[in-house]
Structure to design on (182 residues):
């Protein structure tokens, strides 16, 4: 439940804040909920995942600049920056023969070695596309359209992409005898 609150709480707070008082209020709500949920997660689990740290760090900077300057561009660019950081992380980890996907999922998902690289490249490409889409939406549409895309579009699109990877994952799973090392 706490993982859910950490992941989706800031988005829900952002949407509620936008409805209550616009982009500045949304930014403030998202920042506060993000920091509180991150602190709670740490207090309970005594660890914070690297992706959560990266995302929260980028949020802290972009939200702070937005709140200080009153310029919403910084919070609108935050997803683009985050997607590019993720894309570069997946891409360079795969090129260095240490695929990030393997690091993240290997305990739950036994795959052939080359499959980890392929998945990392696929996720890198996906995050580049998401960065481009975020830029297109915030630059070319009304603010409310970007808010709805951020809250109700990005996560379903990501889930659909992940589901589209399932046939590849199932095809490239290690056989049972190789999973246990027998």
């Amino acid at each position: 439940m706490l993982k859910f609150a950490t992941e989706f709480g800031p988005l829900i707070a952002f949407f509620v804040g936008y409805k209550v008082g616009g982009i500045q209020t949304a930014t403030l709500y998202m920042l506060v909920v993000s920091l509180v949920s991150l602190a709670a997660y740490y207090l309970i689990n005594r660890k914070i995942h690297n992706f959560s740290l990266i995302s929260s760090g980028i949020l802290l900077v972009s939200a702070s600049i937005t709140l200080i300057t009153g310029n919403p561009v910084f919070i609108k660019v935050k997803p683009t920056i985050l997607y590019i950081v993720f894309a570069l992380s997946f891409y360079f980890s795969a090129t260095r023969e240490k695929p990030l996907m393997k690091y993240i999922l290997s305990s739950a998902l036994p795959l052939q070695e080359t499959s980890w690289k392929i998945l990392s490249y696929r996720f890198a490409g996906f995050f580049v596309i998401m960065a481009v889409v975020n830029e297109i939406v915030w630059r070319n549409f009304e603010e409310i359209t970007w808010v709805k895309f951020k809250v109700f579009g990005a996560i379903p699109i990501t889930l659909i992409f992940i589901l589209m990877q399932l046939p590849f994952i199932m095809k490239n799973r290690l056989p049972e005898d190789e999973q246990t090392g027998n």
Remarks:
- The radius of gyration is 18 Å.
- The chain has a mean pLDDT of 92.
